[in-house]
Amino acid sequence: MQKSARRSQAIAQPPGRPREFDMDTALDGAVRVFCERGYHATSIGDLTAAMRLATGSVYKAFRDKHAVFLAAFERYATVRREQTRSAAARGVNGRERLRHVLLSYVEHSQGSEGRRGCIVVGSAVELSAVDPAVRARVNAQLATNENFIAGLIREGQADGSIPRHVAADDTARLMICITQGMRVVGKARLPLDGTRLVGVAMKLLA
């Protein structure tokens, strides 16, 4: 009887105060600093400044820096997935959809975003070998991107814009190597001739 009463009292308690900040906006700030500096070189002070939050608010919303990083990784993956699919939607067939995806990677590998870098590529280099949680997320994101590209190739084969003899899975893996390489080149601040590079990549579909 007493247990039931205590349980009812607990349920009746008003919920805690809602967060007074927008989570996506805060995580976008975390994404920027993690991309620029990497995980180990980013301090809690860097994060509070980038996220525009007090230290206490960061620790209240996240357990530690690692938890912030994982949340930032997921936020980055979500945004980039939307950008990639939006780029693909500009094409009228599978071949053109894939070309627009590659052009999107060129666009995001140049300028300030290119210099900032990609959290997936950075994580693969810095953390995948020593952090199972990050490795799982990196592998999942790369697999998602690869499967999406393979799907576009198969779509092109179905609509006649890509020859049937093209090996969809193998070509998609090579395309992933190209796109992630673009992000590395962009981080290194080397110039990218997008039209020329995408033209060469599209020859894989001949």
Would you give an account of this structure?
With 206 residues, the chain is mostly helical. The protein has a domain at 74-205: Tetracycline Repressor, domain 2, CATH 1.10.357.10. Helix content is 73%, strand content 0%. The protein contains eleven helices and no strands. The protein has helices at 2-12, 23-37, 44-51, 55-61, 65-88, 94-108, 111-116, 119-126, 132-159, 168-187, 194-202. Helix 2 packs across helix 5. The protein is elongated.
Briefly note the CATH topology name of one domain.
Answer: Tetracycline Repressor, domain 2
Tell me how many strands there are.
0
- Give the percentage of residues in beta strands: under 5%
CATH class annotation of one domain: Mainly Alpha
Largest sheet: none
Overall mean pLDDT score?
91
Terminal residue distance: 76 Å
Helix share, percent: over 70%
Low-confidence stretches: 1-18
The helix/strand order is HHHHHHHHHHH
User: What gyration radius follows from the Cα positions, in whole Å?
Assistant: 21 Å
What structural class do you assign from the helix and strand content? mainly alpha
Please state the overall shape, judged from the principal axes of the Cα atoms.
elongated
Oligomer classification: single chain
Distinct helical segment count? 11
Can you tell me the CATH superfamily of one domain? Tetracycline Repressor, domain 2
CATH architecture of one domain: Orthogonal Bundle
Protein name: Transcriptional regulatory protein
GO molecular function: DNA binding
GO biological process, one term: negative regulation of DNA-templated transcription
InterPro entries: DNA-bd_HTH_TetR-type_CS (IPR023772), Homeodomain-like_sf (IPR009057), HTH_TetR (IPR001647), Tet_transcr_reg_TetR-rel_C_sf (IPR036271), TetR_C (IPR011075)
